[in-house]
């Protein structure tokens, strides 16, 4: 279901991008049409089209005249690279900066991250 916090077209684009990133919508695979998205989410087809156009503009989807929209070649790799870059800027760089302020060296920081990962994995079991 869609939520109220973000414009609907952005939510549509984000959900499809997530499906490309996790591989559930594979390269070369047909993406849902404007009408399919509109019917499924009960939104205006123009809103669904705007969401698809965001992904086309980003080079993640490509139009094939008379056939539909398809996931572009290399879309998943580009998307993951962009998301990794964003992750590093948003989370890793501030983490490293704060560790330096606290006098935590790189080796100790890596061990803290590993320990947090082990705790996370144990909680998921």
Order of helices and strands: HHHEEHH
Unreliably modeled segments: none
Strand order of the largest sheet: 1-2
Overall shape: it is elongated
Number of DSSP strands? 2
* End-to-end separation: 27 Å
The largest sheet is: 2 strands, antiparallel
Let me know the average pLDDT: 94
Helical percentage: 55-70%
Strand composition percent: 5-15%
Radius of gyration: 19 Å
Number of helices: 5
User: Given the helix and strand composition, which structural class is it?
Assistant: mainly alpha
Describe the structure.
- The chain is mainly α and 125 residues long.
- It has five helices and two strands; from the N terminus they run H-H-H-E-E-H-H.
- It has a two-stranded antiparallel ribbon.
- Helix 2 (34-41) crosses helix 3 (45-57).
- It is elongated.
- The chain starts with 7 loop residues before the first helix and ends with a helix.
Write a compact overview of the structure shown:
By secondary structure, this protein is mainly alpha-helical.
Features:
single chain, 125 residues, mainly alpha, two-stranded antiparallel sheet, 5 helices, 2 strands, 6% strand
Blueprint (SSEs and pairs):
Layout: H1 8-21, H2 34-41, H3 45-57, E1 61-64, E2 68-71, H4 75-101, H5 106-124
């Amino acid at each position: 279901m869609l939520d109220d916090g973000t414009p609907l077209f952005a939510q549509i684009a984000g959900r499809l991008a997530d499906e490309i990133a996790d591989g559930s919508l594979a390269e070369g695979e047909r993406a849902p049409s404007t009408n399919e998205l509109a019917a499924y989410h009960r939104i205006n087809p123009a809103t669904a089209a705007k969401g698809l156009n965001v992904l086309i503009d980003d080079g993640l989807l490509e139009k094939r005249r008379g056939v539909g929209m398809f996931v572009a070649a290399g879309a998943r790799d580009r998307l993951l690279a962009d998301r990794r870059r964003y992750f590093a800027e948003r989370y890793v760089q501030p983490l490293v900066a704060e560790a330096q302020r606290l006098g935590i060296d790189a080796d100790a920081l890596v061990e803290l991250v590993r320990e947090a990962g082990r705790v996370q994995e144990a909680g998921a079991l």
